[in-house]
Amino acid sequence: MALKGIKVVEFAGLAPGPFAGLVLADNGATVFRIDKPFQSSSSDILCRNKRSLAINPKIPSGLDVLKKVVASSDVLIDPFRPGVMERLGLGPVVFLGENGKVGLNEKLIYARIVGFPRTGSHKDMAGHDINYLALSGILSMLPGSHNRPTFPLNLLADFAGGGLLCTLGIILALFERNSSGRGQVVNVDMVSGARYVSSFPLMHFLNPSTGTFAAKRGGNLLDGGAPFYNIYTCKDGAFMSVGCLEPQFFNTFIEHFIKALPSDFKQRYGWVPNSSTQFDRNTWPELKNFLELGFHTRTRDEWTAVFMDTDACAVPILTPEEASQMEESGQSVPLPHPRILSKMNGAAQVIDLVPIELPPGKHTEEILQELGLTDTEYQRLVQDGAIEGTRSKL
Length: 394
Prior knowledge:
2 domains; Rossmann fold; elongated; catalytic activity; CoA-transferase family III domain-containing protein; 11% strand
């Protein structure tokens, strides 16, 4: 696998850090999650193919061991607010060096994920995805009512702008290390990351002459304003998605839609859309009403059958359970993506979809043994309270 042999130290966190570690682990990296000792469970479910070392860096013996772990690693993922790792004695300077002082591991890729920009006015404040989206400018553009926007779970800032861009930064830094031989700091903040993955709508909004986001929220092609890019409720209460933006796709959609309506529907309604209706904004309210009433005449699965094998850009909105049945693995856990194929035989990489629970400290003894700690050193960690463990020999 592409990252086989790369060793990653991931300090336990929420959402973006664990996701970055998951992507690296899914592609062959060896990932150690650093947990607090004396915990019975973890909230991290993104722990596939990781191992857990539970150790306290606030205790000198624990800090010494952690420095050895990081000194022998390729990547460190720091999910904390600015300054936390420095106060622990594990900041970038310790490993990468500074001002001529040699670091413990100058080939280390030190990846830091924070919510707000590290030098901005909010840098020391707590926050979550919705807050980072709020400052990014993109939340104000997202669909919702005319009174307020809605937010897309915690996908845009935590996972796209945070975890995924952190992974990209790590890969780029590893690639650069091949030529320079040196590591570096990778800084990711989720406000900037959310803005970057939202480049398309933000750049259109800032250039209204393009017309794509020239109207107020809820009045544009992609934010719920267009009837032909929207969600509709069916007879059974389930939903269909419609996204026929291009004229040829709209023509296919409206042709199949009208043909599938009850024979007396057009007569009762008194108006029928055609190909010229699509971009006549004056008719959008009428078209939306026509589609809403029309979709109520059939169930979701019946409409699915109507549009199957066409270019109408109309497909059912599946539940998570239904969508999981379409996974190649046949399991509910999403498969790693993209699928990397072998040039020799076209075979996809094989991923072990292990359980989503990783008890803190499950691999502590195993990892410390691999690190070469003696029994005396191990016993000291236990006695100091730096790790939870038995007094058995390593």
